[in-house]
Amino acid sequence: MPEAIPTYRPVHLGTRRARRREHDARRGSARSRGYNTRWEKSRKVYLAEHPLCVCCEVHGRVTPATVVDHVIPHQGDMVLFWDPDNRQGLCEDCHNGEKAHLEHLWAKGNIDASQLRFGAVV
Ligand SMILES: [Zn+2]
User: Fold this and answer.
1) Is 14 helix (H, G, I), strand (E, B) or coil?
2) Model pTM?
3) pLDDT in 10s for each residue of the chain, 122 residues
4) How close is the Cα of 109 to the center of ligand 1, in Å?
């Protein structure tokens, strides 16, 4: 049987699994970025104490929070990662939508870090 001819497969056209592997290789797996069992416990406690999405609240909606967002992206800084004052509860939509947009603006220097927090500091 002839050997298979090597095929060029751009990552962006690969399977979802391949894209995820590539993405993890670039920024490290969730676990290597600190999202371990300790985080999972801490996250559950936070969501029990802060059950609503603060972004939705700002917009007059009542939505359960499912994501513990790092207000200032920690980018591997474990002090920021574990800082209890650097957290806010968001729903998935707000986390991946409005907050991601704000983080993009912040990364480009267009907004101040204080604008990454929704609502008042509690
Ligand atoms: Zn929301």
Assistant:
1) coil
2) 0.77
3) 567 776 665 555 678 888 877 877 887 778 888 788 999 999 999 999 999 999 999 999 999 999 999 999 999 999 999 999 999 999 999 999 999 999 999 999 999 999 999 986 55
4) 24
* Rounded Cα–Cα distance for residues 8 and 118 (Å): 45
H/E stretch holding 70: strand 67-70
For the record, the structure tokens of 57 come out as 């609240």
46 Cβ contact list (under 8 Å, min separation 6): 68, 87, 89
CB-based contacts of 39, cutoff 8 Å, min separation 6: none
Which tokens sit at 15?
Answer: 């399977």
CA–CA distance, 92 with 117 (Å, rounded to integer): 16
Q: How far is the CA of 5 from the centre of ligand 1 (A)?
A: 49
- Looking at residue 84, its amino acid is P
Question: Residue 89 is encoded by which pair of tokens?
Answer: 């509860």
**Cα 102 to averaged position of ligand 1 atoms, centre (Å):** 14
How far, in Å, from the CA of 19 to the mean position of ligand 1?
Answer: 27
Structure tokens given for 94: 């707000």
